[in-house]
Amino acid sequence: MMASLSQMNLFKGLGGMLGALKMPDWLSQSSTPTTTFDRSYLILAIAMYMVGLIMVASSSMPVAERLFDNPFHFVIRHMIYIVLSIGIAVASLQLPMSWWQKSSGGLLLLAMVLLLVVLVVGRSVNGATRWIVVGPITIQAAEPAKLFFFCYLSAYLVRRRDEVMENFKGFLKPLVVFFLLALMLLAQPDLGTIIVMFVTTFGLLFLAGAKLWQFIGIASVGVTALSLLAVFEPYRWRRITSFLDPWQDPFGSGYQLTQSLMAYGRGEMFGQGLGNSIQKLEYLPEAHTDFVMAVLAEEFGFIGISVILLLSFILVIKALLLGRKALAQEKFFEGYFAYSIGIWMSFQAAVNVGASAGIVPTKGLTMPLISYGGSSMIIMTIAVVVLIRIDHEVRLQNIQATSGGRK
Predict the structure, then answer these.
(1) Structure pTM?
(2) If you average pLDDT over residues 311-340, what whole number do you get?
(3) DSSP letters spanning 356-387
(4) Hey, is 123 helix, strand or coil?
C-alpha cells in the first residue's frame, strides 16, 4: 500500500510539473521539504533532448538527402527515439530500486546474452559488428550492457562491501566479470565501451573503499593491457598517431579529426549561426552521431559548447551528490548506482567532446542525450530515470522519518 501510494505521489508530481508554466516554480518546488522528486533532472534532460534534436536536424540533412532522398530522415527517427525513450522512462519510473537490486544478476545475464547474440547475427557497419536488427528496431548491445553491469556492480558492492575493503579477493571478483564482458566487446570490436566501463568500475570501487594499493596495482595492469591492444592493432594505432598529428595525413588517417578541428576553428566565440555549418556538408563524417559537438561548435561557437558542457556538468554533479546523500542514509545500492551513473556520464561526455576537439583519440562514443542513436538515447534516459527514482525514495524516507518524529 505504501509503495503504491509513493508511486501515485510521484506520478501526480510529474503531472503537476508538466502542467506548470513558470520554470522558477519548478525549481522552487524542488527544494521544499514535502517534494517527492527533483524537477531539475527533468529540466536538464528535456533541455538536452531539445538541443540534440536541433543539432541532429542541422547536421544530418545533407547526408540524409543523399542517402535517402529525404533530408528529414534522421530527424524523424530521432524524434521517434525521444518519444520511445519517454515512454520507456514512464514505465521504468514505476520500478522501485529494490527491483533493480534483486534483478541485477538477471540483467547482467541479459547483457551477456545480447553481446553474444550480436557476435552471431549482428549487423556490421564500417567493419564493426555492434547492432542487432529486429524488424525496424536496431539495438546496440553495448549500451544496455553498460547500465546492467553498473547495476550488478552496485549490488555486488552491497553484498561484499567488507570483502572489497579488506582483501584482494573481493576486489578481484567484479573485475573477472568485467573481463568477460570486455572479451565480448573486444570481439565486435568496441574498445571505447570497454574504456568507459573500465574507468567507471575502478572509480566506483575506489569510492566504495577499496585499498589504494589494490586500486593502483590493478589500474596499472588495465592501462597496460589497453595500451597493448592499441599498439598491436593497426587501425587503433593509426587512430592514436593521427590524433597526435592529424595534419600529417589530412586526407587519410587524420581526415575526420582535421575536419572536426576546422569546425571548431570556424565557430570561434559565438559561432556561424544555426544551419550555417560548412563541415556538415559531408566534409565531416558522422557529423550527426559521434561528431555532433563539432557541428554545434561551428554553429554556436565556444558559448554553445560551454552551455552543453554546463548542462552535462550539472547533471553529473547532481548524480554524485545524490549518491553521497543515499550512502549517508545507508541506502548503499542506491548510492553506488548513482555514483556509477555520474562517473559514466561524465567520462563518456568528456571522451566525446575530447575526441571531436582533438584532445583524446576518437572512440566512437555518443554525447549523452544529444547525439543521434536510439540505443544510447533510451539507455541514457533510463539512467536519468534511475536517478529520479533514487532521489524520490531518499526524499520519501526523509518525509516519513520527519512525520514519524513529529508523531
Answers:
(1) 0.86
(2) 93
(3) HTTSS----PPPTTTSS-HHHHHHHHHHHHHH
(4) strand
Give the span between the Cα atoms of 212 and 209, in whole angstroms: 9
Picking from 283, 171, 268, the residue whose alpha carbon sits closest to that of residue 216 is 171
pLDDT at 20: 41
Q: Give yes or no for a contact between 341 and 386, defined as CB atoms under 8 angstroms apart.
A: yes
What secondary structure, in 3-state letters, does 159-205 show? HCHHHHHHCHHHHHHHHHHHHHHHHHHHCCCCHHHHHHHHHHHHHHH
Among 207, 153, 242, 203, residue whose Cα is nearest residue 350: 203
* Omega of the bond leading into 189 within 30 degrees of 0 (cis): yes
d(CA 223, CA 259): 30
Domain ranges of the chain: 2-8+37-399
Q: What are phi and psi of 284, to 5 degrees?
A: -100, 110
Encode pLDDT of 136-187 as tens digits: 778 888 899 999 999 999 999 888 777 766 677 777 778 888 888 888 888 8
Cβ-based neighbour number of residue 133 at 10 Å = 12
pLDDT digit string, tens, across residues 8-36:
454 444 444 434 434 344 344 454 555 67
Residue 60 phi, psi dihedral angles, 5° rounding: -100, -10
Paired with 379 in beta bridges are none
- The number of beta carbons lying within 10 Å of the beta carbon of residue 47 is 16
Cα(270)–Cα(276) distance, integer angstroms: 12
Percentage of the residues of the chain whose pLDDT score is greater than 90: 42
What does the pLDDT look like over 103-130, one tens digit per residue?
999 999 999 999 998 888 877 766 667 7
SS3 36: coil
| Dmax (CA) of the chain | 74
